[in-house]
Amino acid sequence: MTGKRAHLPSGRSVQLSVSGEQARIVPDEHGEGWVLEIGGALQSHVDLQNPGAIRYEYLRRMANVLDVGWSPAQPISILHLGAGALTLPRYVQWTRPGSGQTVVELERELPSLVLAELPPPEGTDLTVVIGDARAELEQLREPRFDAVVLDIGTDADAAAHLTGAEFYGELLNQLTETGVLLINIGDEKGLRFLAQQARALEKAAADVGLSGAWTLADTSMLDRLQTDNAVLAAGGAVTEWEQESLRSELLAAGPHPAAVLDPAQTMALAERIQSRD
Q: Is-cis flag, bond preceding 255, omega within 30?
């Protein structure tokens, strides 16, 4: 797949067969790049000229974990559950050329639209699989992945089969010994769903002999328990690090104000949230 294209995105829209929503690529009104719009809501940002520019903070925090998990420019194998506008796959190719990447997406029309309108960087090794993330996970015959990214809008109203300790255990079992699982959790005020999923990931990690769930988020989200997106992380890539050293690296990387909670701090946060019920 190449990133060369003689003209700009056309602005055409397609109807997604599962959700029934309209999807299209539109210019970013607030800066450089393009935005994926689904059902009138902005979903993902892409800068074709600078794939290293990640606008959405939770994706930037995921990218930071990938940056510190392996030597600079070292290719990795990565499974993305949820396609969006392929922002993170573009970043991985830009920072780690030659990485093998697989994307699983439920909406058949979405990857076709994104790849046609916003081609990935030249040389991107990307396999697209259409189907339900959990069902397709069972069908994968690939070697284990260095990273698995779950980014399918797994909030409290999303598909329950893509959350919980059992599913997270299945994802952890797809990792290499030094791999990392990254989960986007979008939650509403009070963060009860985040607390539930942090405990679920803690259990799943303990079951396979790993240290528990790390949490990366905006400081004010966790302090005030307000609506936003947080990243949960677990796996050998964060288990083998000395915790304070890892926290310092990820805190310095931002975006700021940044909160990086180790497993004990994550469980303390979950307890604080659930004690309010």
A: yes
